[in-house]
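TL;DR need structure tokens for one chain.
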Amino acid sequence: MKLIFAPASPFVRKVRALAHELGIQDSITLHPVKTTALSTADDARAANPLGKIPALIQDDGPTLFDSRVICRFLNDKANGDMYPTNTLYDVLTLEALADGIMESGVTIVYETRLRPAEKQSTEWMDAQWSKITSALDSLELNMPPALHGTVNMAQIAMACALSYLDFRHDDRNWRNTRPTLAAWHQAICDRPSLKTTEPTD
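>> reply
TL;DR here they are.
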């Protein structure tokens, strides 16, 4: 299998971290691309008509895209238990929340990096950050049970989302008023799967 990826993408990191958790990372060849919302890499568009990453090119099956689709596929392929049946919808909901945090975080980066300064919208970026803070405040107030106990996909996805905030939005200091969430994140980031897949430019 071949993974179309960029090392800074939190969505890609989800897939890579999961592969490490499942012990199948060596069965996936990494194919790096340089792609943005304004300049799509040819290999990314060839794998996914939307031009988005990650995309997983199978050796003997259709190409899969969207990190949630790829993660479910890899878990099933490896007979993993990262989506436990007894808490499935809790895990899926938290994974979706993590993806939403990632999406808003990436959108802010696009606004600052891809648009000229005079065309950047502070209001738009503030609205995206407001979505993130709402999610983080909710987690701090009531840490869901699925974020504790045996590692699952919700935990990996949320760890990747919070790490992306550290990576791209460290100046916003999301940790300052959320000690419980910050401590949880620090602890889970000791996992080898997350240490091995730390984002880079």
